[in-house]
Amino acid sequence: MADLAGQLPITFHRAIDMCCDWRQALEDIISLGCHRVLTSGQDSSALEGLPTIKQMIQQSRGRITVMPAGGINERNVKRILEGCGAKEFHASARSLCQSAMLYKNSSVAMGASLSPDEFSHKVTDDKKVMNLVTIATQVSSS
């Protein structure tokens, strides 16, 4: 795939979080020519995996961008960026949006009871994005 990408930057998605030896995996990813690696630090969220993300950034020595991901929001992005020294991060910045459907049969559920109902969907929230950018900019300039 790296050959097919040509000059396009390559991001290695969170598969590193499932590796038994992330240190070796990081070296392998770098040797493949990837430009960044998306990671939650082998934990459920970037905040929980912060110590490992910091170690990944230290090991990378600028050869690849380590991009924290997983559960990043306006409440924790500052702590994550300051805690590991990352220059980039990934966040969905989503909000729940109600459907514009005119008729809603609320007596029928189309999915699991723990998932959002059929009458709403998640969308990227531009206000959340702007707040995250503002916070990250403040961190990088301090």
From TrEMBL:
<dbReference type="InterPro" id="IPR005627">
    <property type="entry name" value="CutC-like"/>
</dbReference>
<comment type="similarity">
    <text>Belongs to the CutC family.</text>
</comment>
<dbReference type="Pfam" id="PF03932">
    <property type="entry name" value="CutC"/>
</dbReference>
<dbReference type="GO" id="GO:0005507">
    <property type="term" value="F:copper ion binding"/>
</dbReference>
<dbReference type="InterPro" id="IPR036822">
    <property type="entry name" value="CutC-like_dom_sf"/>
</dbReference>
<protein>
    <recommendedName>
        <fullName>Copper homeostasis protein cutC homolog</fullName>
    </recommendedName>
</protein>
